[in-house]
Amino acid sequence: MISCLKLRSPKTGRSNYEIEKMKSPICAMLGIEFPLLAFSHCRDVVAAVSKAGGMGVFGAVKYTPEELRRELEWIDNNCNGKPYGVDLIIPNAMLGKGDAFDAAALVASLPEEHKSFAARLLEDSGVDASDLDERRAGVVRFAQNLGEAGAGELLDVAFSFPIRLIANALGAPPPNMIAMAKARAVPIAALVGAKEHAITQIDAGVDILVAAGGEAGGHCGDVSTMVLVPEVVSVAGNTPVLAAGGIVTGSQMAAAMAMGAAGAWCGSVWLTTTEGEPSPTIKQKMLDASSRDTVRSRSRTGKHSRQLRSPWTDAWDGTGAPDALPMPLQSLVSEPALLKIEKLAESGNKGAAQLATYWVGQGVGLMNQTMSAAAVVQDFKEDFLRAYERLTLALEVDQ
Q1: Domain ranges of the chain
Q2: What interhelical angle do 329-346 and 280-288 show, nearest 10?
Q3: What residues does 305 pair with on adjacent strands?
Q4: What are φ and ψ of residue 335, in 5° steps?
């Protein structure tokens, strides 16, 4: 509980006053104690953060409706009645958007040049690539969920649970998401990477803007968080803004709130927790990485996303590599290979371990130890209060 964390008086140096409750519109809107939202593909992280006073938001784009129902049932049974949310990716611009989904035709449309390039990268590192075409059938659901029909099935499942937030990335939420959320009084969040995107989202009817700077892991723009947050705040009006991108400490969260944000949206910091979804090999690579060991590239999904740098990312961004395909085709080239790489790395394949990569932001340079997700939330609270104290000590304030 944040109320148990005391601050020293700037006059006396004694710990004689404390914060009882965060005064943030995000806390009031979502019914949470501390305005820290955790995006994660791991149900354990989502439940743990919600129980610790923040809000876990479950990344659902890769699941079938049946799988999503099982995951949300588990979260609902393990978050002690605390609020949680769901995040989808429904791009405004994507190859074949609006067309009927045809998995076989989509896979058949992959250029041989790209498939051969991916296979050659594996083989050059001692990884068998003969089954990549077969493995593509296992990731094609991701492509289906990016379309409105596939996403609609996931929305039906999500809204059958008492979620307290629905979020969308890569564009304005589609009308059916907005209508379903408004009918249930569920706030809608949308990620933005530029001031003009924020204006579009407000016009579309979103309730929360997530200003995701270029430091962020996964899909991100090219404007830094330090610049993007005040730009978005300047046009947000009464719409609360969550800061995202490279934020892995409470002091960074406090800095963002000093610029007008109402809280923070974090994804990368949960990856190295004990509950986080990456394999042990990838977690260790993140723990060893510096803030310069990430790269923003189109090579994984067809849209710019930040990930851990490895020989895999270097090759795709190097001379002689084919240009990235539009979403969702690039994912159908890369994901089967990367999933196999991650699995073989855990069995001791050194070539696979070198190739292994995962989405992560530049804040990875500050992620130097493994702790539980609940401990990360507590650390955020304590670091936030220390930052607040430093600002208070810099002012002549009577207490």
Answers
A1: 19-98+147-274+371-393
A2: 100
A3: 219, 297
A4: -60, -45
Give the three-class secondary structure for 382.
helix
pLDDT digits (tens, 9 = 90+) for 142-151: 777 777 788 8
Token pair for residue 198?
Answer: 């924020």
Q: What is the CATH superfamily name and number for domain 19-98+147-274+371-393? A: Aldolase class I (3.20.20.70)
**Per-residue DSSP letters for 72-138?**
HHHHHHHSTT--EEEEEE--SS-TTTTSPP-HHHHHHTS-HHHHHHHHHHHHHTT---TTHHHHHTT
Nearest one of 388, 396, 309 to 8, comparing CA atoms: 388
Structure-block tokens of residue 24:
């943030």
Give the pair of three-digit tokens for residue 44.
Answer: 């354990």
Q: Is 49 exposed, middle or buried (0-12, 13-18, 19+ CB in 10 A)?
A: buried
Instruction: Output phi, psi for 188, to 5 deg.
Output: -115, 130
Q: Rounded to the nearest 5 degrees, what angle is found at the Cα of 187, between the Cα atoms of 185 and 192?
A: 155
308-329 residue pLDDT tens: 999 999 999 999 999 999 988 9
Residue 2, pLDDT above cutoff 60: no
pLDDT reading at 10 higher than 50: no
Q: Contact 169/197 with Cβ under 8 angstroms?
A: no
Between CA 300 and CA 321 the distance in angstroms is: 13
For 159, the token pair is: 């809204």
Question: How confident is the model over 84-96, as a mean pLDDT?
Answer: 76
Query: What secondary structure does DSSP assign to 202-227, as a single string?
Result: HHHT-SEEEEE-TTSSEE--SS-HHH
- Alpha helix (H) residue ranges in the chain: 25-30, 43-51, 65-78, 103-108, 112-124, 132-136, 140-146, 148-158, 175-183, 195-204, 225-236, 250-258, 280-288, 311-316, 329-346, 350-355, 373-393
**In sequence order, which residues have a C-beta less than 8 Å from that of residue 68 and are 6 or more positions away?**
60, 154, 157, 158
pTM > 0.85: yes or no: yes
Integer angstrom CA distances of residue 201 from 138, 192, 249? 33, 8, 27
For residues 264-276, average pLDDT:
98
Which of 10-14, 22-26, 64-68, 374-378 shows the lowest per-residue confidence on average (mean pLDDT)?
10-14
